Amino acid sequence: MPKCFTFDEHDICTMPIWVRLHSLPLELWNDRALSRILSRIGRPIGTDKFTHSKKQTSFARALVEIDLSKDLIDCIKLNVCEGITLDQGITYEKLPEFCKTCRRIAHSTATCEKYLADLNRRVQKKREGGNSVSLGTGEKVVVATEGGTAAENTGGQHAGAQTGVGTCGNLNRENLGGQPAGA
Fold first, then answer.
1. With a threshold of 0.70, does the pTM exceed it?
2. What strand order describes the sheet that includes 59-67?
3. pLDDT digits over 132-181, tens only?
4. CA dist., res. 47 & res. 36, Å (int)
């Protein structure tokens, strides 16, 4: 590779990901409707042959360029008819680990050395006062003081497996796979 070519790993935040739209009404199985639906989660690239031919209709499957630095949407509200809405769940296939701290693919924030070092530094600062420390993921850890109890994780929720059917809300990438954020 020529020396003049520089490749910044931080620039890779988008990636093509296969998504599934389970139980999508057949009236919406056309290029225009699928493109409009999928544009709400990323840049549509194309559908698989079964979706294109409508030979398998339990779910529509499409390749979408997704920005991994943003929270994933697991449900879209669709206006299917005047006054009738549908909560359409979205399933993401084979999501790579992505660290929002480093903005890199290959490890999660929960295992990021930079994030863990920063968290440890903040915990050490707060240890004297016994205050809680924000994890930067919407969670807090109660810091133990002398004679106190062990650190307590509060606010951690499990979002379910990344291949599960969407439950209509925003997924926090650090909560995917059944592990609490920061674990």
1. no
2. 43-47, 59-67, 14-22, 91-92
3. 556 555 555 554 444 444 443 333 332 333 444 444 544 444 434 433 33
4. 13
